[in-house]
Amino acid sequence: MSQSRVWHPFTQHALEPAIPEIVLTEGAYLQRADGSRILDAISSWWVVTHGHRHPRIMKAIETTTSALDQIIFAGFTHQPAERLARALAGLAPPGLDWVFYSDSGSTSVEVALKMALGYFRNIGASRSRIVAMEHSYHGDTIGTMSVGARSVFNAAYEPFLFEVDTIPFPAAGREQETLDRFEAISRDGRAAALIVEPLVLGAGGMLMYPAWVLSELKKITEASGTLLIADEVMTGWGRTGTMFACEQASISPDILCTSKGLTGGAIPLAATLATDAIFQAHYSTDRKKTFFHSSSYTANPIACAAALANVEIWSDEPVAERIAALSAMQAAGVRRFHDNPYFTDSRVTGTIAALDLRTGTVGYLAEIGPKLRAFFLERGLLVRPLGNVLYLLPPYCITGEELDGLYDAIEEAGERFGSRP
């Protein structure tokens, strides 16, 4: 193959070895040109839910291409988008009745932030501050970087980022500090919205917190008139054990962001769901109150058809049972490491499992990260640690035997690369 001209994401090309080419995906596997297979233990960056190339989703894409491609969505509509919006409103927590389409997790969060700020501007309230959680990650666009943790990821773009108020991560035993801090921030009436990753902070290190904290945060937003934005881009579609993580706290956010698993991971699509109150604040004979946001590929019919097929799979196939089984297997796998001297903080929420390797350096740029990636890839396993944080977030079709093999490899990695306390 000739020299590639592709610039890959989150890749330091000066340090990375030759990048493998994938020629086929199927189920829980990626296949290289030489026929060797790689077990996709992270659902190709958390997007693939039922498995690669689920036949029903592929068929929906094929069928739709015979009649539709992209249609301008300003002033026109189509049935895949209409049907999907009704389905999403039915699946989401109660009260999220309006669906705005975009094309990625980052854009769905940008939309949410603009909805929140537009809502208060249109009702004549001077609220313009956003509150975010420590260690959070919401995307790589300017707005989403602004509400994410300041780090090496966004240091170069600091001049463009807007300031936010931050509440501490609700670490075990320190949850009340988080609640007290948010309550103090919310008292001055300047906060437009609190944005959180419900139950699990993904790129921040697969940090997990209990549902009751989310429930209490919601109570504070209600008491202070602050909107709650739930970034369910990663946590949605069963990852935490329920369709949306918010369900476990028995709450409905004012705005909910979804992407990744929305199409089962087959094709890009995102949606931002909002309450009727937020929609009505933008519904006016005054054109200045229009919600001014779009992208060229808003509500792509082919992507919407793929998402509809995904919804039907949830309805017709035993997806909830598969998630429950995977969650139980993950819990059992994590238990293997409770007394392992090379690991600490083994944790699980639904189908997401994580543990920290004891090593000399920690954090995303820890040198151990690339070494671990190479170690697993040599064994035909796609595991992409967040520095010294190892996590498994596989598609729901993974078998118990495959998962056991992953945990065996993690155990071996600990013995090779880990340090004892």
From TrEMBL:
> Biological process GO terms, please?
biotin biosynthetic process; L-arginine biosynthetic process
Under the heading InterPro entries, the entry gives:
Aminotrans_3, BioA, PyrdxlP-dep_Trfase, PyrdxlP-dep_Trfase_major, PyrdxlP-dep_Trfase_small
Catalysed reaction(s) here are: (8S)-8-amino-7-oxononanoate + S-adenosyl-L-methionine = S-adenosyl-4-methylsulfanyl-2-oxobutanoate + (7R,8S)-7,8-diammoniononanoate
Q: Which GO terms describe its molecular function?
A: adenosylmethionine-8-amino-7-oxononanoate transaminase activity; pyridoxal phosphate binding
UniProt: pyridoxal 5'-phosphate binding residues: 105-106, 231, 295-296
| Cellular compartment(s) | Cytoplasm
Q: What is this protein called?
A: Adenosylmethionine-8-amino-7-oxononanoate aminotransferase
The species this protein was found in: Mesorhizobium tianshanense
Q: What is the lineage of its organism?
A: Bacteria, Pseudomonadati, Pseudomonadota, Alphaproteobacteria, Hyphomicrobiales
